[in-house]
Amino acid sequence: MHVGALRIELRIRGMRSLKEKRKVVKSLIADIGRASPVAVAEVDHQDLWQRADLGIAVVSDSPGHVDRMLAAVQLEFDRRSEIDVLRASRSYLEEEER
Question: Which pTM does this prediction carry?
Answer without folding.
Answer: 0.87
